[in-house]
Structures are given as C-alpha cells and as structure tokens.
Prior knowledge:
Blueprint: H1 2-19, H2 29-43, H3 61-71, H4 78-97, H5 103-116, H6 119-125, H7 129-146, H8 153-169, H9 174-186, H10 190-213, H11 221-226, H12 234-252, H13 254-269, H14 274-293, H15 304-323, H16 330-341, H17 343-374, E1 381-385, H18 389-394, E2 397-401, H19 408-416, H20 421-431, E3 435-438, H21 440-443, E4 452-458, E5 469-474, H22 477-490, E6 499-502
Parallel strand pairs: 1-2, 1-3
Antiparallel strand pairs: 3-5, 4-5, 4-6
Helix pairs in contact: 1-6, 1-17, 2-3, 4-6, 4-7, 5-15, 6-17, 7-8, 7-9, 7-15, 8-10, 9-10, 9-14, 12-14, 13-14, 13-15, 13-17, 14-15, 15-16
Amino acid sequence: xxxxxxxxxxxxxxxxxxxxxxxxxxxxxxxxxxxxxxxxxxxxxxxxxxxxxxxxxxxxxxxxxxxxxxxxxxxxxxxxxxxxxxxxxxxxxxxxxxxxxxxxxxxxxxxxxxxxxxxxxxxxxxxxxxxxxxxxxxxxxxxxxxxxxxxxxxxxxxxxxxxxxxxxxxxxxxxxxxxxxxxxxxxxxxxxxxxxxxxxxxxxxxxxxxxxxxxxxxxxxxxxxxxxxxxxxxxxxxxxxxxxxxxxxxxxxxxxxxxxxxxxxxxxxxxxxxxxxxxxxxxxxxxxxxxxxxxxxxxxxxxxxxxxxxxxxxxxxxxxxxxxxxxxxxxxxxxxxxxxxxxxxxxxxxxxxxxxxxxxxxxxxxxxxxxxxxxxxxxxxxxxxxxxxxxxxxxxxxxxxxxxxxxxxxxxxxxxxxxxxxxxxxxxxxxxxxxxxxxxxxxxxxxxxxxxxxxxxxxxxxxxxxxxxxxxxxxxxxxxxxxxxxxxxxxxxxxxxxxxxxxxxxx
Length: 507
C-alpha cells in the first residue's frame, strides 16, 4: 500500500505539472461517468446531461458511487479518492489469495500487482477498473469458501454478493462468473451455482429493463459500439467467430499471452491444490472469452483485471510449487523462468509510468479545454460532438453525440455503417447547434457541405486522444461569425502548446 501511495503521488505530481495544478484525469471517458453522476445527484437523471436518460456508461455501480460522493461535497476529487480506496482493497484481497506464502514472496507478488497491472495508472484514469479488480479478487476469495464441501448459506451469499459487485462494476466480469458457476454446478454445489448466476445477472437485467423502458437498447451503447465485431466475409469471418479473433488478439497482447501460458503450464506441471486448479480454469476460460468478445488496451485498462488476476495466480503457483519442489535448484529455476516470462509485463509497467502524465496532459490540452470553451455558451445550448466526456461534465449543454454513446440515432447509424452527410445535416437542422466539435478524420466525407469550418486546435502529442486536431464547425454561414468570435476570444486561454487557428487567421 505504501508503494502504491508513493507511485500515485509521484504520477499525480508529474501530471499536475502539465495542467497548472488542475486535477485532470487521464481518460475522457472518466468524465462521462462524472457527468452521469452529477446529473443523477442533482436532477435524478441517469444521463450525461440533465436533459434525458442515456445508456452510455460502461459501469453501473461507479456512477452511483460518484453521485453519493457528489452529495457529500466531493466532485472533481471523487474518482481519485474512490480509486485509491478500491486499489487498497484490491491489494488486501490479493494478499488473502496468496495467504500462507513467506513475507518476501507476498511483497514481490503485491508489488507486481501494483506496477504491472498497473494500479497507479488506473487510479489516475479515474474510471472503475480498480474497483473491478477488487471485486474479481473478492469473487475468487468467496469462490474458495463456497467451493468447500461444508459450505453454508453465509459462504453462498458472500459469493453472490461478490458476483453482483463484479458485474455491476463492469460487464466483462461475467466472463469469470460463467466458468465459476459451471464448476460449482459440476461439483454438486447447485444452490451456490444458481444463486451466483442470478446475482451476477441481476445488475445487467435491472439496467436492461430501465434502458428499454426509456427507448434505449438493453446493453449500454459503450458495449455495443466497442465490442469485437466479426465483419470479415466468407471463411475469414467464420474463423474469427470460431476463435480466430481471440488468437489474433493474444498475438497483439503478449502480456496476456505470457500470463495465460504461465498459468496453463504451471497448472499442468506443478503440484498445486484442487482449488488453485479450479481458479486456473476460471481464469483461462475468462481470458479466452474476453479476447474473443471484448476490447483490450486504451491506457492499459480493458484487460487490467485479467493481468492482476493472472499475476496473483502465478504467485500462488510459485508458492505452492516451490514448497513441494524436491531439489534446491527447482525454486530459483522457477522464479527465473517466471521473471523471463514476465518481460512483456515489465515493459507494460514501464510504459504505464511514462505514459500516464503524458495522457493527463493530452486530455487537459484537448478535451478539457473543449469543455471549458463550451461552458461559456448559454445553458441548454445544443452542441454536436464526438468526444463528450469533459464537454458533458464541464458545460451545461444539450449534446448530440456523433460517435453514438449518448445519442441513440447515431449509435444505430454507426453500428449499421450509415453515418453520412444526410444524417449529420438532418441532426444539425433539428437541433441548431451553437457549435460542432469533431475529429475531421473520423467523418471523412460525411461532413455536410453547408457546414463552415471556423477553427481548429492541434495538440503536440497523441497519447490517448484519437486525433491531434479537433475542428470547430458552424452549421451554416450565419452562425459561423459568432463561433469565430468566441474561439478568438478563448484562444489566449489555451495552454501554450496548443496551436489554434480561427478561420484562415495565423496561429
């Protein structure tokens, strides 16, 4: 915990040096949750703005926790505080999973969880991934109790509670709950299996009912738009559907590949307990389901729960395997082999330490400035944009999300591949936006010819933003002058590294 605190403090200090002391999170998506929390706390609306319901969050419980923090006076700092608390809980639970190991082993294993997951980066990302890691560790801890032959009602309820928290934090946790339920059922623990399955499905089912009642899909749009797709024609598409996508993803994610291989090999050759082998089965199946159906990457976050869990399982294998080793050479050999296999994870940990302050700087110079600029519009002004987090959190605007997370029509059009000039022109005509803020590269030939490009902002680096240049459009020539004056007035307040152009003016 001390290592975690020091690492977070040093990263935060480096990040604040880039933002003039302003607390900014390393991902724009963090502000989507913060915006939903603010709407929920202030207006009782589950939406990125107070003007209506939006099924756009990747987590169900995280906005609720942020809303509760908002009600007691925490707002900007709530994601940081909650992430630190969740990371501490994750370390405590990880220590329970490797209980019985010598203190030195536990220090090394927990330090690996801190730096290789990497927890400090996830804390500064401001999202729910540290809570998911804690929930998954709790799930495995409670599975141990419920899997015992004399497990009672308390053990079953504990496992059910852990499953509920895990899936309410992120839907991908279902990839681990599913094999756990199957193993319990096959072992004759039918009550535990049924209770766990119902508990895990409860949060998604409740959200689906609420979402459909508001006219939205049963799943959050973030899942529908960011999931793996199998669009290749013919045999290539069939191979993808039958696991080819998982194989290709593992090839692009060596950190997951080495963890998966390490768990499989250790489970096959080392003498470990029945419980650890069942943990292994859950992990292997969950990992394969994730790489087949879900995304990886984007500031180390999507697969972070699998990395943390894999590290704990490797540590548990090394502890049990070396304890049973018959020769004095076996222990150092196992440790050396594990260290060599961890090379991709060590690279990942170093990259995370380097990229996190740069990611904060990236968000501060682009999305955060977009939010500050649009905050000066009259309350309730319409805005069209494709990156909505900081905009929704900092400004009181009616948003048309051109990516689709917070707008049903564009979400459906994007899934169908129908984002074109006619759609964007009609949306602009219906809403009369005061500003249109987009990545021009995302829309190719879909920008309507009547839109007027009024200005651009270009940041020096591309770390977590999708494009270095964001463009500001007016829906017609009549409103272009107003937007141009506003951009010119705001230009002096931009960070020095941002290159701003208004119309054809010089930088």
